[in-house]
Amino acid sequence: MTWEEIETFVIGDLGYTYQQYANLTWREFIIKQIAFYKKQSKDYGHTRAICYYIAAVNRDPKKSFPSIEKFWPLPHDDENAPDEQEEYKRLRGALDRFKQSQTK
Known about the structure:
Blueprint: H1 3-13, H2 18-23, H3 26-57, H4 68-71, H5 84-103
């Protein structure tokens, strides 16, 4: 993720002003990002459930019907979920490398 992508996410998706973006700490950014994606996952899950039940009601009862996860897979489904510890290590490593590059 580049700084331009971070700026675009914070100002565009989160709706922060540039001043709020400039005052945001890395920890606050990570917390806001996690909260944003959790809310987005819930919204997608809700949309998926509506579509699934509409399709289930109108399907041919003689044919088998997939599970909701197979019907519309989402990133937060258990089989597709990234390991939280690995993601933490990846982000922590990126932060440490950034800090080292700033001290040189």
